[in-house]
Each structure stands twice: as C-alpha cells, then as structure tokens.
Amino acid sequence: MNADPAAVANTSAGTSASPDERIVRAASAAERIVRAACPHDCPDTCALHVTVRDGRAVKVSGDPAHPTTHGALCAKVSRYAERTYGAGRLLRPMKRVGRKGEGRFEPVGWNEALDDIAARLGAIAARDPQRILPYSYAGTMGWVQGEGMAGRFFHKLGASLLDRTICSMAGTAGMAYTLGGLVGMDVERFVDSKLILIWGSNSITANLHFWSFAQEAKRRGATLVAVDPYRSDTAARCHRHVAPWPGTDSALALGMVNVLIADGLVDRDYVARHTLGFDALAERASHYPPERVAEICGVGADEVRELARLYGTAKPAAIRLNYGVQRTHGGANAVRAIASLPALVGAWRDPAGGALLSVSGMLPLTPDRHTRPDLVPGWPQHRPRTINMVRIGEALLSADPPIDALVVYNSNPVAVAPDTERVVAGFSREDLFTVVLEHFQTDTADYADYLLPATTQLEHFDVHRTYGHLYLLANNPSIAPLGEARPNADIFRELARRMRLDDPALAASDEDIVRDAIDWNDPRLGGLELDELRQRGWAKLATPAAPFADGGFPTPSGKCEFFSERLAAQGLDPLPDWVPPHESVASAPALARRYPLALITPPARNFLNSSFVNVDSLRAAEREPACEIHPDDAAERGIADGAMVELFNDRGAFLARAKSSDRVRRGLVVAWGVWWHKLSPGGRNVNAVTSQALTDLGRGPTFYDCLVQARPASAASRSGGTPA
Ligand SMILES: Nc1nc2c(c(=O)[nH]1)N[C@H]1C(S)=C(S)[C@@H](COP(=O)(O)OP(=O)(O)OC[C@H]3O[C@@H](n4cnc5c(=O)[nH]c(N)nc54)[C@H](O)[C@@H]3O)O[C@H]1N2
Ligand SMILES: Nc1nc2c(c(=O)[nH]1)N[C@H]1C(S)=C(S)[C@@H](COP(=O)(O)OP(=O)(O)OC[C@H]3O[C@@H](n4cnc5c(=O)[nH]c(N)nc54)[C@H](O)[C@@H]3O)O[C@H]1N2
Ligand SMILES: [Mo]
User: Fold this and answer.
1) Per-residue pLDDT tens for 209-267?
2) pLDDT > 50? residue 298
3) Residue 620: how many CB atoms within 10 A of its CB?
4) Are 443 and 408 in contact (CB under 8 A)?
5) DSSP secondary-structure letter at 638?
6) Which residue, of 111, 182, 348, 631, is most buried by count of CB atoms within 10 Å of its CB?
7) Is the CB–ligand 2 distance for residue 603 below 6 Å?
C-alpha cells in the first residue's frame, strides 16, 4: 500500500486513540473525531471526519488529508448529521394498517415483525423461492450493509436474482468489450492533462472532486471541453462546449475517428502494438464524415473537425466519460466508441492521458466469496430466474411465476425506476408482500407491509468499494443506533436465523464479510490489514501510473479491442456504431409528431438520486421541481417564464416550474430529478414519463431517451390531464 507516498501521509494523527473507537483525535474530554466514509453512490466516495460530542454527531466534514476529498464535502453530505437526526427518521419497526400505498402504519416490536416476515417468506419459499425478489441498489456502497449478508440470505433462499442494471450496465458492457473491464485513469492524474473532455457529465453536480482536479489542470494550462446536450454549470465553465443531441455520442466519436485518420493524427505505433481491428474501425468511421455527423448530432461539421484535431494534437489528452452518455438506446455503443479514442491517439502512454469511466474493476474484488451464489440450492446447475430492476414495473405486473414477495433495501424504486404508473400499479398489488428497510418513509416505503428502521452510516460499521478513485475507505461507527434502528446486515442475519437457514456464512460477523469482499493478499494492497484500514481510515491501491502505456488491457487479446470477437460470436456488431435512440424525431417520427420534445432528467445538485429530497434545507435549496425549455418552444406553447408546466406522454405526466433558457436548444427539455413523488406538485416526478426500454448492451435504463410534449399546467388541469 505504499505506491503513492501521499496516500499514507498524515494519517497517523491521533494514533494514541483507542483502537476500538478509531478516533482521529479527542479534541476535549467530551469531543472526539471519528474516521468515516461517505456511503453514497457517487464517484467521489469521500473520507469523512465525524465530530461527536456527548454521544451525538455534531459535524460531518471532509478529511483534509485524503487526497481526493481534500477536506471538502458537497452540500448534501455536509448535512449528513441533519439527515440522520432529521424529522421523519424511522426509529421503530412498523406494520401497515391502511391500504397499499397509503403509507399508514402502526409500530410493532422487532420480534413480532421479524417472526411474521420469516413466516411469510418461508411459506412463499416453500411454494417457489423464485417468487421472492430482493430489490436493492447503492443507497450505501458498503460491503457490509450492501450485498454482503443480504446477498447470502437471498442466495440461500433461492430467491429470484436481481439484475442490478439501473445505473451503469451499458457503460460496463461498453468498457468490457473495448478495454476489458472497468479500468482507466487515476483521477488524481488529471491535473497534468493538457486537454480534458468531460463527456456526458455535469461534474460540478455529480463528481465535484474530479472538478477540482480539472480546475487545477486548467490553472496549469489545460483546455476543458464539455460534450453535453445541455449547457450545464460544468459546460458553462469549460473553454468549449459541444452540444450533440442526446443519444448521438457514438456518431460524434466515430466522426472524430474519421478526422483523426484523415489528418494523420493516429499513433500508428501504439495502434499496431496494442489495439485490435484498426482497419475495420477505419472502415466503419468512413461512414461518419463530419458532414453526416453534423446532421446526426445537430452540431457544426467544423465543430467535429476542431474537436478531433484538438484531441489528436493535445498531449496528454484525457476523457472523463460518465453516465450521461449511457442513458439512451445506444449507450453501450457510445461508450465503446469513446473508449476507443485514447488508444487511437496513444493517449494511454502518459499517466495523465486515457479515459476514466469507473475504476471499480481495478479493485481486487472477490464477489463470489462475498455474496456466495454457491449457497443457491442446486447451484450452478440450477440458476434462479433473473429480474431486471429497470423493468420492475413490468415484472411486478406480469412475471411468471409471479413475484409474491419483495424485500427492498438501499433503494427507492417507486421514485427512481422508470415508468412510474406501471411501477405504482405493481407495488399496489394487495397480494404482494413487501418489506422495506429504510431510514425514512420514502415513496417506496408507503407500499410496505413491514417498514423496518435501518441505521445510517454514522451508526454502523462498513468498508467501501469505490469507482471514481483508487482508495479503500473504512467507516467506523460514531454514534449508537438511533431509536430501535438496526443495520441491514443484522436484520438479514436475524431473518436467516428465524428461517433456520443454517450456514456459517449467514452468521458471519461484519468484519468477516469485509474480509471476504476483497483479496487482502493482492499485492496492490501491500499487506494492508482490516484493523489498520479502520485505524487509518483509507488507503490507496498501488497501481501503475500509466496502466496501459505498454498495452496489457484486460481483454482476451490483451489489446484495446476496436473490433470485438466476443460480440461477433454472439451475432452482434463487433464494431462500435451509432445506435439511434428508441425515441427521437429521426428514429420515431410518428411518435415525435405527438411528443416533439426530447427530455433528459439528470440529477439535481442538492439531491443524490432520491436521497436527501426529504432534508428540508436541501429541498429548500432546490425549491421545486424545475425544467429548462428553449424560449421559442416555450412561446409556441404559451408557456411563460416561471410558469408551472406539465410534461407528458403516453406513459404519464409530471409538473415542473419552467425556466425559459437558451442553455437548451430547440426541441430539448431538461428536468431535474429525482424528487420524491409525494413531495412533488401533482404527486409525480420525472419518472412518470421515462420508459422501461433498455440499452443496446448491458440491459441498462434509457432515462434520457424519452419524448414528451409540454403545456401550461393550467391548461392541463382545464382538460383534466393533471396527474394524480
Ligand atoms: N449531486 C449529485 N451527485 C450525484 C448524483 C446525484 O443524484 N446528485 N448521482 C450519482 C450517481 S448514482 C451517478 S450514476 C452519477 C452520475 O454522474 P454523471 O453522469 O456525471 O452526472 P450527471 O450530472 O447525471 O451528468 C449527466 C450529464 O449528461 C448530460 N447528458 C444527457 N444525455 C446525454 C447524452 O446523450 N450525451 C451526452 N454527452 N450527455 C448527455 C446531461 O445533460 C448532464 O449534464 O452521479 C453521482 N453523483
Ligand atoms: N429519471 C431519472 N431516474 C433516475 C436517474 C436519472 O438520472 N434520471 N438516475 C438513476 C441512477 S444513476 C441511479 S444509481 C438510481 C438510484 O436509485 P436508488 O439506488 O434507489 O438511490 P436513492 O434514490 O438514493 O435511494 C437509496 C435509498 O436507500 C436508503 N438507504 C441508504 N443507506 C441505507 C442503509 O444503510 N440501509 C437501508 N436499509 N437503506 C439505506 C436511502 O434512505 C434511500 O432512500 O436512480 C436512477 N433513476
Ligand atoms: Mo447512478
């Protein structure tokens, strides 16, 4: 663990602290600072210092010594104590008394709740355990409170498997077929890049600590370019902004390939030694001359040429490729095309060149030991069916055999899954037995039969996997659980015991789960031990500065695969291509006549997906659900600046405060997510209109592939079209 001396510096402060409390320092007899980690699904995974006074967390701040956190937290997580102690925190187990979805509960004891849940799940499992479905995502990224004990529990039961696709699977597939996995640049190296393409990411909102590195690069002379259909806060602060239509990034990247080849900007030596399929890629790119790309993307042909030339001549050039490009039909192909660029120009030769989407594939993870799929009865001959979490609405309404029980933890599907009306119809089934583990009574919790209070990050132990940087982080508990809240892992351990699912793996301690989650003997950990990690708070993985300077990609060929034999073997296009959106003026003209506006719904700065929406100060900062629409589109529809509008299509409708703005082009609308339905005017958020259609590869969501129409909200209510 000593590859980067900066990574271990400054962590020895307060080593006199007792090992059990993992204190940074005791400021006074009554005050201490505990090392913790941000649990949220964000590339930044910050190292935290939690100040505890008289048993109460009074402040959560960023660890100044941690190189990517550097003492700064986002507005949301600096309010983590406010969230933890906030109004509405669930403190006792509750049982439904009203109708499904009404959200009326009465308190019950833990014993009664767990006994009843165990009995109900047991009865369903006796018929067919596949009628039970876990539903979880990354409410916490910890190994203990995430899929460790929960995974073991559902595997041992033989429950349906959940395809956890709602965020990153298109990109994961695109990277796997091109570079061989989720591998890439170290975010700390971007400071030395001369050109940074921020492609499909509003970093100031979603990846703040990367933005600090990009700012430092700018001070050192780098050029920053945003590729984003919307002039986001990030795009507005870059030197250049290229604004393609949503879902056209692969055409833009192939146009860049076309120009790079035509202008002789290809690194022939790197290509010859470390890539596969250059001639085939060149042939494919020949179909994407700048003029055609300009037409597809809605940008100027000269913009395509200039972008390519800038990219081909600036050295080192880096790409921060993110989730915005993945949320349309062709998301995986877009990532394939963009991830091909660095090899083409030899950018990987330099530590500050290449691309970064996620580096989670660089961690020595041992998922099978962690979540134990081998516990599934009959494994591996028998594999339970798999349900795609993106299509939970459809699955609850029509899976065969039906889903009889749903156990939700670390996720708020009623708010975040696409196609709300279908999701709500599914969750409303009176014959569905639903258990929700939560901090708050979310939109999903309203549908629970049992609502179980879970501990927050301040109250439980965990160790965190990361994807935007190369550190492991430990989270030491700083306060006792509030009320009767229990950690997820304890709840699943207890359920397993009551259901007599006896396997030592289901009684494992939290620390053992962490020991099972990664290979602690991997040389990149340099002999690090768990207790040392808890003490130090974080430690960096030792990886080479320029991981692919000399090739060695984790693909079958060891090369960057422009051409993928693995795709060809599946009868799929072996080369990246432009896959048009499911819904766009060009690809669905009849639909576009009724719903002519392309809608994208990226996250709001003060929320983390649907988390924090219930924190009053943060919701006050966002004010109300909002959208931006081009002045001409607004005028055409009689929408005044600042008026409430209804955005709708065949799937549903939601309301948002309209801002007339030239940050969007004509035909494009941006609306921020992901509000809780019940805290939104009209009771519906952006996902009322999004679709359950999937991406080209990876079975991912297509949140930003969505046509709508807009009208003033008053007109909507006059015609009776206001959502429920
Ligand atoms: N504050 C905050 N931070 C977050 C989150 C949050 O909810 N709030 N969510 C976290 C999670 S789970 C994730 S996955 C990441 C998301 O991380 P990012 O993907 O970096 O974040 P977004 O802010 O969603 O940026 C998406 C950008 O892509 C643009 N975009 C939309 N469609 C397209 C397209 O087709 N092509 C291109 N090139 N751009 C497009 C949008 O206009 C938007 O500006 O952020 C994490 N961080
Ligand atoms: N329209 C639209 N929809 C989107 C997106 C978008 O950009 N546009 N973004 C998508 C993306 S990228 C993602 S990743 C998904 C995210 O969707 P989710 O994974 O559902 O994320 P959150 O909305 O943050 O909800 C997480 C929930 O977990 C709870 N939680 C946190 N920690 C714990 C814990 O320790 N125990 C328990 N029991 N609960 C806990 C929180 O209180 C919170 O309610 O949303 C997707 N939905
Ligand atoms: Mo995400």
Assistant:
1) 999 999 999 999 999 999 999 999 999 999 999 999 999 999 999 999 999 999 999 99
2) yes
3) 10
4) no
5) T
6) 348
7) yes
